[in-house]
Amino acid sequence: MDMLPAFIKGAEENFPKASITFDKFHVIQAANEAVDEVRRTERKSCAELKDTRYMWLKNPENLTAAQQETMAKLKDCDLDTAKAYRMRLILQEIYRYPAAIAPMMLQDWIQWGLRCRLAPMVEVAKMLQNHYDGVVRWFSSKLTNGLLEGVNSLFQAAKRKARGYRSEKNIIAMVYVLAGKLNFAFQRFSGNS
Asked: What's the whole-model pTM score?
């Protein structure tokens, strides 16, 4: 699940025996937001960072040739943004480690994050420290809520597209229609006809 306090509280109240797993997507999303915040702050004093926002949000293998060239030039500068970007890449790499060593590596990253003097990255480290058990649980469960969020986005799009329904009954019917189409597509894709 997401790390929003309302979600956590709701899960703890309604499912007291459940173990909460925090999705790696939300961890990396928080790190990406922190990198962007560092970039925005540093942009005020560094003209070289102009028009580089999306470059810092990509993985190195996904950079265009022009972005790779820009990254190579900026690598030699002593930029806080580059440091935050490296921290994000290392955090992302921890999710590829075996479950036996990943928690130790995550603890090391948290300590680095707490000492790094980049306020947004310190906040990410504190978040990981405060939710450590749920974050580490991902390494054994590998649970993600990506499918549910994708389905929810389809329902939200249908709601926007219709610009409102006359009654709750109509929107519920539309959700059932979409869910039926999704179920049919899933069965065809998985071969379970």
From this structure: 0.79
